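User: Fold both of these, please.

Assistant: Here is the first one.
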Amino acid sequence: MTDRQMPKWSELKPLLRPKPVTVNPTERRLDKALTIADLRAIAKRRTPRSVFDYTDGAAEAEISLRRARRLFAEMELQPSILRDVSAIDLGTSILGSRSELPFAFAPTGFTRMMNHEGESAVVKVAADAGIPYALSTMGTTSIEDVAAAAPDARKWFQLYVWKDRDAGEDLVKRSAAAGYEALMLTVDVPVAGARLRDVRNGFTIPPSLTAKTVLDASMHPAWWANLLTTRPLTFASLSSWDGTVAELLDKLFDPTMTIDDLNWLRSIWDGPLIVKGIQTVEDARRVVDAGADAVVLSNHGGRQLDRAPTPLRILPDVRKAVGGDAEIYLDTGIMSGADIVAAIALGADACLVGRAYLYGLMAGGRRGVARAAEILTKEVRRTMALLGVSSVADLNPSHVRLP
């Protein structure tokens, strides 16, 4: 029979460790987010459905996006034990300069709709983290204002080729004048993908005040208050648009663009050139031969051609074909630091994350973006340590097995 006794205060006292009270509601909300999926759940609660679905959704049946995430989920990491991982170096070289982390912030359109702090918040976090940030042609903060928001950040400008080539050339020249490091040409949008969530939600830029959105406003008052009391959304190309995003892209972008247009870009831009939207080995080799310094293996986050090739699947073959002639980056489906580690091991020089930081932005503005970067950084470091790897440069195909 077990003897029992009442505990003494001296025994109870060490066990009483009340959790510090976080006064700021945003910080309190973000502290509960331990993964990017947690940030996504918070973002979904705090953001109007049409805006969240624009960020979260993909084209048609959204098969491409699900396949990308499923492949990351099903890949197998191969650890090597009894390695000294007391010091982990997460830095790597991107375009010849050190990045403190093996990922960068991808270009995303209409960012100030997700949260009024928008691109300025994202570039500031990128500067703090020591990683590049790419501003989209369809951004809602000007090239110059983003440069002023974070003068020391590594900034890239993402370009779509417009039907109006003079307008595109003006953007390139403004980027050069504002000190942007690289130009990222996106080549997978000859026409817009069928983003059915946007059509079903009646999504416009900026959101229209209809009976449906007024009802939604009652459920998301903070988001609407921020939208209506901060400066109006403005774009490089227009002040507003009554149709869907897909209709806007079809109006602006040039479907006649070919590989020969890289020569035109080279004539107006003499810095590093990144080509984004590569989905086959043959196209990777073609654009590198045409002068690209880096390629991004990407199916546009599943937002263009549904059932497109999965970037992680083709990565090893592209690495073999390109060799050391160009850097290779990868996006689409990345939801964790382990995903980033796997891509680096299979041959990527770095990854681009988009939705991951947008979930953070919707969940808590600049602090939410910083939380997303913090989550990914911790996951990359922990995954490398558990793999027995102390440096990004030491990751290799032996660390990953694809199904």
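And the second sequence with its predicted structure:
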Amino acid sequence: MRTVLRRVHMWIGLGAGLLFVLLGLTGSALVFYQEIDALLHPQIRVEATTPALGWSSPVWDRALATVRARWPGDQGQWRFEASDAPGPIAARHYPGGPSSGHISKRMMVWLSPDGGRILRHDRWGDYAMSWIYELHMDLLSGETGHSIVGWSGVLLLLLLFSGLTAWWPRGSWRKAIAFKRDAAPIRRLYDIHKLVGLAALPLLMLFAVTGFMLALPALGDRMLARVAGPIDVQPVTRSTPRPGAPVPLATALAVGHRALPGARLAWIEVPPPGTGVIRLRVQVLGDPSRRFPHSYIHVDQYSGAVLAVFDARRHGLSTQVNNWLHPLHDASVGGLATRLIAFVAGFLPALLFVTGSLRWAGRNRRRPHLSF
């Protein structure tokens, strides 16, 4: 059985190793993708003399007026991010209306802290960090790439399981985890590969599982529903069109804040004229995701009435599991320390691939058949 597992480990590592290396390195870059993007685009590195924008800021309406004046004929959905730090306002525009998934077309816009000027705008996928994001998410291949990336998580789990089982000591654990400094080079390669693999095992397993669930959400939801109950779904709400202009964002924010007074504002989603609703995406106590939280307040864009509240604290177990996937995968759940750990972990598949390939090549120079 150990011989079979070693061969399974070898063939998965050699056959899919470069894919794991690519996903690991791009994942490391994405841990700090906002910071790297700001370094690459100095025009959005501006000093703000006012505090970060919150529920009661009048700047949101000014920012909305600015982008609509710049693109007057574009009637898609606008989203504004409420960052905790003062600085430029990040916005997104979905020309076809509300996003139907990650691959929806969108334009990224950055405004001055007062909302009065546009500092930068780029189509998603046309600048470096968004290209790396798409490469990591779907290999630049849309839904087909999503499937490949998702199932690669299963393959990575099989690689890790086969390696761990083939290594599992039958005698002394002390000898099994020792690094033999005076051994032959091919033995030292094995020890490096072994020790790096053991150290990386928990994180790589976590990234494999969360990556699979994020890349294949429909399949993941079905699996969760069988084990932990149904997935909570946001209610479908509609605004009632009436004569006159929609309510100001300040009004929608005020009623939304009263609906969930302890929540932290994260995103403001503004629909085009019609039956769409203003959605306020907020973080409540216990939600692990700070940037992309899982609670929503729906506000009628004409009357300013609250139509629905989707509170993460009332979600079932399956939805709670889903809520943890993204912050665990991008390591945002623990702040800078966990992000640094995840950044380093992204390089470990490359180290494992190099040491494993060198050992395989070294052994096969001495043997006519493949072994590991």
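The first strand starts at residue 77 and ends at 81.
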